[in-house]
């Protein structure tokens, strides 16, 4: 029989072993449980991240493929089937909405792009149209020299498009440059944009503000050409004055001048000198050389230009208005009313029109120019102030005009026509016409003497008793052309002693 005291240590070792085994087994079970829990947690987290990323960036077809793989890997709990169906519907609705938004967004973008392209194309066309509409030539005066007749003549020409009425905004010295340019663009907007058409405007007073016309047109149309008409000073002053008289009564009839606001018409023989002018009419309005000098084609003395400025103006006003010229590259075509209305010689008249045609680069010939804008309120139908300048009481006035006319004619012939930028047609006929300015057209005996004498070298038959043309020409040759830069890009004239 075994003693219990002898087996006690053995039992204690067995109990300790069992205790250690149970502890180890529990540790293994806990570790396995923790590992399984961690694995499941990581799996669920990765699935959620993938689903959220797919909703944001992956295409609908890829989402469906993921959903099918997810169904194969795990079986949903029966209670979750209804919730999963709702989730599918929500995803499908969101996907459909996104597709709709993308489609509408793409359509809107494409439509907006088309609108932008269309607007940019139309704006480019407008800009191109504006760029094409440059002024090609201007009928620049003088008043009552057939400018309206030329307007109608060019209006009928297939290669020309001219504004239907006077457009003097670009040459108006009382407006700033911005307004002047807008007035010019307004006039050009009515004309054809075709590059085969010559665009033109008519402004008979442009030569009276030649400096402003040159400065502004030089920026807009540096290749534009000037067409300038001349006329015997005596006939021009009478026609210009009677035109203003008729205009005065027309305004009264239209309600423009009533009662105490009615203007008093001054007598013609009081309009002597620029400071005595009435609506632009004075003896100085026929001194063509004073205005043609401002084109900068000849040598000019400052005191000559200074003489035409009204005495009431300040020095600054004088500089801004007339006491400045600007040399330029504009071409000028000079003609006389005698040439324009020449009905005595058909061949000579045709030659004149051909000269004007070639000057303006027209391919088709000009038709004979008619007489337009005639003043019918003369003679028996005239107003009380309408004048006949050939009356004896205007003899002293005519002498002033004839004296000035002879001076203007010599300057044009021997100085202005020397410039390569100044052209005439039928030079002999032109010179014969301007040389008659030194003769009183109302004096028939003087006219007869003038017709029978030669004026090629001298002008002794002129009533002003001026020096011979050759003497004047020699002085003009010795004269120097001196310019000094002034403010606002003007060129002021320095006096030059002979």
TrEMBL record:
Q: Where is the composition biased (Basic and acidic residues)?
A: 66-75, 457-469
- Give the compositionally biased regions (Polar residues): 444-456
Single GO cellular component term: cytoplasm
Q: Which UniProt keywords apply?
A: Membrane, NADP, Oxidoreductase, Transmembrane, Transmembrane helix
Query: Which segments show compositional bias classed as Basic residues?
Result: 76-89
Q: Where is this region: Disordered?
A: 66-127, 442-481
Q: Which Gene3D superfamilies match?
A: P-loop containing nucleotide triphosphate hydrolases
Presence of keyword Transmembrane? yes
Q: What is this protein called?
A: ATP synthase D chain, mitochondrial (ATP5H)
């Amino acid at each position: 029989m075994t003693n219990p005291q002898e087996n006690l240590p053995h039992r204690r070792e067995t109990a300790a072993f069992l205790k250690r085994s149970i502890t180890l087994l529990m540790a293994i079970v806990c570790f396995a449980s923790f590992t399984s829990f961690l694995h499941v947690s990581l799996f669920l987290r990765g699935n959620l991240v993938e689903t959220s990323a797919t909703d944001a960036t992956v295409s609908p077809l890829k989402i469906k493929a993921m959903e099918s793989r997810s169904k194969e890997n795990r079986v949903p709990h029966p209670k979750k089937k209804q919730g999963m169906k709702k989730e599918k519907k929500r995803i499908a609705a969101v996907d459909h909405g996104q597709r709709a938004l993308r489609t509408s967004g793409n359509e809107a973008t494409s439509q907006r792009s088309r609108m932008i392209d269309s607007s940019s194309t139309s704006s480019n066309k407008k800009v191109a149209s504006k760029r094409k509409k440059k002024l090609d030539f201007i009928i620049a005066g003088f008043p009552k020299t057939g400018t309206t007749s030329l307007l109608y003549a060019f209006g009928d020409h297939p290669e020309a498009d001219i504004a239907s009425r006077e457009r003097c905004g670009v040459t108006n010295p009382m407006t700033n440059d911005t307004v002047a340019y807008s007035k010019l663009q307004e006039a050009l907007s009515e004309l054809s944009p075709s590059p085969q058409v010559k665009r033109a405007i008519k402004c008979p007073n442009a030569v009276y503000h030649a400096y402003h016309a040159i400065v502004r047109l030089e920026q807009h149309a540096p290749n534009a050409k000037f067409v300038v008409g001349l006329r015997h000073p005596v006939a021009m002053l009478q026609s210009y004055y009677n035109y203003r008289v008729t205009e005065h009564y027309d305004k009264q009839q239209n309600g423009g001048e009533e009662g105490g606001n009615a203007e008093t018409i001054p007598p013609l023989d009081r309009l002597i000198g620029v400071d005595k002018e009435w609506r632009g009419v004075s003896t100085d309005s026929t001194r063509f050389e004073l205005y043609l000098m401002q084109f900068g084609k000849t040598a000019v003395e400052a005191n000559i230009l200074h003489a035409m400025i009204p005495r009431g103006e300040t020095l600054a006003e004088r500089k801004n208005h007339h006491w400045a010229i600007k040399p330029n590259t504009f071409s000028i075509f000079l003609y006389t009313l005698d040439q324009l209305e020449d009905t005595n010689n058909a061949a000579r008249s045709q030659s004149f029109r051909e000269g004007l045609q070639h000057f303006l680069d027209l391919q088709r010939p000009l038709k004979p120019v008619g007489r337009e804008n005639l003043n019918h309120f003369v003679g028996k139908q005239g107003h009380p102030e309408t004048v006949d300048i050939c009356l004896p009481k205007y003899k002293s006035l005519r002498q002033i005009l004839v004296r000035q006319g002879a001076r203007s004619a010599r300057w044009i012939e021997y100085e202005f026509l020397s410039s390569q930028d100044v052209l005439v047609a039928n030079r002999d006929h032109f010179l014969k016409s301007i040389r008659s300015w030194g003769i009183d057209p109302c004096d028939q005996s003087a006219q007869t003497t003038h017709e029978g004498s030669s004026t090629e070298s001298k002008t002794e038959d002129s009533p002003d008793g001026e020096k011979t043309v050759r003497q004047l020409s020699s002085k003009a040759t010795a004269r120097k052309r001196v310019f000094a830069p002034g403010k606002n890009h003007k060129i002021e004239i320095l006096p030059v002693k002979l």
